[in-house]
Amino acid sequence: MPANRFHLAWFGAGGFGVKSWGRTWSGAGGRDWTNPQLWIDLARALERACFDYVIIEDSSYVPDAYGGNAKAYLDSATATPKLDPTVLAPVMAHLTSHIGIVPTLSTTEYHPYMLARKINTMDHMSRGRTGWNIVTSSSHRAAQNYGRDEQIEHDLRYDMADEFFELACKLWDSWEVDAVVMDEEKGVWADYTKVHTLDFEGKFFRSRGPLNGNRSPQGRPVFTQAGGSPRGREFAAGTADSIISGTSGGVEGMKSFRDDVHARMTRLGRSTGDCKVLFMASPVVGETDAEAQEKRARQMAWAEAHPEQGSCTCPGTAASTSRSTRWTSRSPTPCGPTATSRCSPRRSA
Ligand SMILES: Cc1cc2nc3c(=O)[nH]c(=O)nc-3n(C[C@H](O)[C@H](O)[C@H](O)COP(=O)(O)O)c2cc1C
Prior knowledge:
The protein is of the alpha/beta class. The chain has a single domain, classed as Luciferase-like domain (TIM Barrel, Alpha-Beta Barrel). 34% of the residues lie in helices and 17% in strands. The chain contains 10 helices and 14 strands. β11, α8 and β12 form a beta-alpha-beta unit. The chain is globular. 38% of the residues are buried. Flavin mononucleotide binds next to β6 and β12.
């Protein structure tokens, strides 16, 4: 095995939604996107191509920023519709064997108990191949769908995410590794002394615990994060196993982003090798460079003529080289039952 392995992830922009509609090669994309087979084929193709994981992006509102109403978005199926990625993830996992499946769940929209329970269930069902793309929601429209007038302030959202993460990890740890004994002679399925209440009382969340499901193969999911702001990077540096970044500035911009994250990790007491930083790329493929350039020019011209569609419909690839990873595309189980005790995000004082 080479010392410095190349890692690839697929960022499924647009989430569990319409991937292509009304374009030259869209085909039946506007109709068939709810057919699970489409997503199974996608996951299998990525697995064949030795991708480490696939992220299913998500948000929970119908946008209306452009033009003050939802017309542009609904006409073009841009950024909406989106169905629940946690329903899709187990289907993709069940019909693949080693790629990691990473749904997006928001710390602003879930309660830690519900999220911990859901992810624990998915990790059981995927035999230890579930990740969690940790996001804090930024849209006022999403906040309004959950009963608030507007979105919680940016840095406060991350303070809440810190506590959310801590509590979720404690819930995943509420069943000890050897709690399930299945001793038929004694009539004991699980040892109650190894299943613990938490009585967690935080600033933002409370939960009694324990989780009402036993520990999953990984114990906790693989954490991915995409914070771009200083506060977001601090959160990612303290929690993530893998960061996906859309930073600008070419190679220099990427190096500076990675150096910043590494410095934060070191300050927070983590080893820089514990988190892979992956950068977004949207390859344009042609038989020759000229053909690819021409195709790119066509794409740019189309984007300029359709500003309402932004870049939301482009799926992307994230890539990184690094020395190790918790998931490798060739291992049958990406991360075995190696629960760690890292339960709170590291924060600087
Ligand atoms: C590659 C990538 C993927 C992202 N995926 C999501 C997503 O699925 N849902 C979401 O609400 N935000 C998503 N975001 C937004 C980030 O979570 C984050 O809010 C954003 O990068 C801005 O960083 P900040 O919150 O630290 O300011 C994504 C960002 C990037 C760069």
